[in-house]
Amino acid sequence: MLIAMAIGIAPVRIFAQVSLATTVDLAERNSSPVRLAEADVKKADSALAQSKDAFIPSLTFGAGLPALPDIGFTGGVPSILNATAQSMVFSLPQNQYIGAARAGLKAAFLALKQAREQAALDASTAYIELDTVDRELDAAHQQEVFAARLVTIEQERAEAGVDPLSDLLQTQLTAAQLRLKRLHLETRAGTLAKQIAVLTGLPDGSITPDRASIPEIPEVKAGEAGNALAGIDSAQMLAVSKQKVARGDLLNVLIPQISFNALYSRNTTILNDFNAYYVKAIPTDNFSSGFSIQIPIFDRGRGAKARESAADALRATMEAEQTKRQNEVQIAELTGGLREMDTLAEIASLKQQIAHEQLQSVLAQLELGNGAGSGPGAQPQLTPKAEQLARIDEREKYQDALEAEFNLAKTRLNLLCALGHMEDWLNELHGK
User: Fold this and answer.
1) Crossing angle of helices 92-159 and 384-418, rounded to 10°
2) Containing domain of residue 411, as a range?
C-alpha cells in the first residue's frame, strides 16, 4: 500500500521507444506550417466559392415600420417589406477570376503537401540524429571509464618513477577532453529531444528512438528522373492564378458586363397620407426586374488596376522560375556533397575496423605476449596502459563512423526531398 501511494503521489515521467513512422505522423499533425497551409487551403476554397457565387442570385429581405406619423410629402414610397434579387449573367472577367481562384486552390493544396513533406523531413532528420547521438554517448561513457583507468595506471607509473610527470598530465588532459566531448554530446542530445518535442507536441524527452524502425534510405542520384516537386508546382500554380487575375482586370476595362436585378416591395399607408399626393392610390404590391448592361468607356482606375495585376503576375512568374533554379542548384550541391559524404563514411568505417583489429591485437599480446623474448633489441612487452589507449582510440573511431553515417543519411534525405521522392520515402517508412 505504501509503494502504491508513493507511486500515485510522485510525478511520473514515461520514456518509451517510439517508431520513426509515429514520430513523423505526430510531427505532420502538430506542425505549425502544416496548420497554416491547411488554413490557406480553406481560405482558397472559400475564395473559389465566392467567385463562382457571383452568378448565383443573391436574395435580400428588408422590413420597416414608421416610428412617427409622416408630415407632408417626403419624396419616398413607404415600404413595409422589400426583397431584392441580383446576380451576374455575363462577365468574361469573372470567368477569369474563377479560373484564378481555382488555380489558387491547387497552389494551396500543393503548398500543404510541401509543408507536410518538410515536417516529415525535419522529424526524420532529428530522429535519426538523436539515435546517432545516443549511440555516441554510450561510446563516450565507455571512453570515460577507460580514461579513468588510464589515469590510475599512469599515476601509479609516475609514482614508481617509470613514466615522467608529463605523461600523467597528458593522460589527465585526455580524460578532461573526453569529459568535455561527453558534455557536448549531452547538450546536443538535449537540444534534439527538445526539437522533437516541439515537432511532435509530446513532453520534452519522452521519445526514445527505435533504431529498428529506421528503414534504409534509398540511394538517389541527380541524373535520375525526379518526381514533380510540390513547392515548385505550387509557385507555378500561384503564378497562373496571378496571370488569370491580370487577364480578368484587363478584360474588365474592355468587355461589357450584364447583370440581373429584381425588386419587390410592399407599400403601406400606415401613419402617412401619401395617397393624397397622387392621382391614383399607391399600389400595395410592386415588382420590377431587368438586365443591367455596363459598357466601359473611360475608367483610369480600372486601367491602373490592370497594370498593377500584370506586375503582380510577372513577379509571381519570376518567383516560380527562381524557385525552380534554386532547387536545381540545391540538387547539384547535394549531389556533390553526397559523393563526399559517401567516401568519408567509407573512410571512417575502415578506420573503425582497423582500430578494432588493433585493439584485438593489443589484447592478444597482453594475454599471450608478443613472442619477441627478452633479449637485446627485442620489442618491449605491452602494458595495461596500451590497452586503455587502444580502447579509447577504438571508441573514438566508432563515434567518427557513426557521425559520418549520419551525415550521409542526412544528405540522402535532403536529396530525396529536392528530387521530389519524399513521398516514396514516407511510403517505405510506413510500410516498415
Assistant:
1) 180
2) 16-60+74-369+381-431
Q: Which residues touch 37 (CB under 8 Å, ≥6 apart)? A: 108, 111, 112, 114, 115, 116
The CATH number covering residue 417 comes to: 1.20.1600.10
For residue 10, being part of any structural domain is answered with no
Residue 170 lies in a domain: yes
In this structure, is residue 67 part of a structural domain? no
Cα separation of 136 and 26, whole Å? 26
User: What was the pLDDT predicted at 221?
Assistant: 67
**Residue in this structure with the C-alpha cell 503564378, named with its chain if needed:** 239
Domain assignment of residue 65, yes or no: no
Which run of H or of E encompasses 60?
strand 58-63
**Helix (H) / strand (E) containing 402:** helix 384-418
Backbone angles phi, psi at 149, to 5 degrees: -65, -40
Structural domain total, the chain? 1
C-alpha closest to that of 122 among 216, 50, 222, 195? 195
Distance separating alpha carbons of residues 226 and 123, to the nearest angstrom: 23
Where does residue 376 rank: exposed (0-12), middle (13-18), buried (19+ CB within 10 A)?
Answer: exposed
| Full-model pTM | 0.81
Question: 327-350 pLDDT, tens per residue?
Answer: 889 888 888 888 899 999 999 999
Measure the CA dihedral 243/244/249/255, to 10°. 130
Looking up cell 522533437 gives 196
pLDDT reported for residue 427: 83
Whole-angstrom CA distances from 72 to 80, 227, 243 are: 19, 78, 57
